[in-house]
Amino acid sequence: MSNSQLFQLTDKVAIVTGASRGLGAAMAIGLAEAGAKVLLVSRTPPLPEIMTALEAVKQPFAHFAADLSEMSSVTPTVEAALAKFGRIDILVNNAGIVRRAPVLDYSEADWDAVVNTNLKVPFFLAQACARQMVQQGQGGKIINIGSLMSFQGGILIPSYVAAKHGMAGITQSLANELAPYGININGIAPGYIRTSNTAALQTDEVRYNSILSRIPQGRWGEPSDLVGAAVFLASPASDYMQGHMLVVDGGWMSR
Is 160 annotated as catalytic? Predict the structure, then answer.
């Protein structure tokens, strides 16, 4: 393969979860621009500007409505990708939620909602897609979206931290077992990115500036900052990477 083809995704089929906005939408557009056919999966339809951007790329894409907090979403999501595009080559496990409360007050309901959405369903969706990839016999790429909280303890988000630590762990576990099938399992750990999940931090001036002061690059990230990492991990350029969480954080973890 020539160097010019290392980052090409021509004729590949990608599932991107949590793709109606934010990180998922940006990565879906980036994969499409690299040549992939993309199934965007989310409870609500992508924002109009996301649809416009995807239409401009002129690659086949579709949206599938699913509640990714429920195990019942796993099989229909895989079936939707196969019905629309006939195969699955890439999964981006991005869907996630956060519930904030002090550890002394944290509820079981919030714990279960976050862990189900951010860890349980992503694991079983990865399993289902991996089964399809094994059946196809041509390998594949699974990209699990972690967080800085895959490595740190955070504040007011115990279930989110548990799930993101877990996402880093299952990335390694899946890689250990699926690498012999030519399936690469890696992850991305975004830093502080301007999305709806960080809205509470962005509107808290003291917390926002405290975070900003620790980022060597001097700014919060934008969803588009993850596109390069996503295309890299979805492409042949990462064929010898396994079980790695790629941190994209403006330097936060180096401080």
Answer: yes
